[in-house]
Amino acid sequence: QVQLQESGPGLVKPSQTxxxxxxxxxxxxxxxxxxxxxxxxxxxxxxxWIGSIAYAGSNTYYSPSLRSRTSISMDTSKNQFxxxxxxxxxxxTAVYYCARTGAGAEGRYESDxxxxxxxxxxxx
Length: 124
Known about the structure:
The protein is mostly beta strands. The chain has strands at 3-7, 11-12, 18-25, 34-41, 47-54, 60-62, 70-75, 80-85, 94-103, 109-114, 118-122. It is globular and about 40 Å long.
């Protein structure tokens, strides 16, 4: 069974870069037909998709609202993928999740495996 775990600093200062790593076990990030996603939940709000990366072609996909500040990459030798969110503000404070996302029928996407989430606070 595939498992995912987030890691990285829990506190980031404004204007700095938020960097998180997702370590995947029980499955390979090179597996076809999956995307590897970052999702967050800000206080009092719902889940917000940040972006995803696919192994094939190393294609990345980002939320329009965060595209200019987001970079997702993968390290296949470590079975990890990473999130970098630049120029953070307190509005970026959230629980950040990584997830495995599959393309289902009729163009629908489903994240079937999630990490437990990690709290990241942006504060000076």
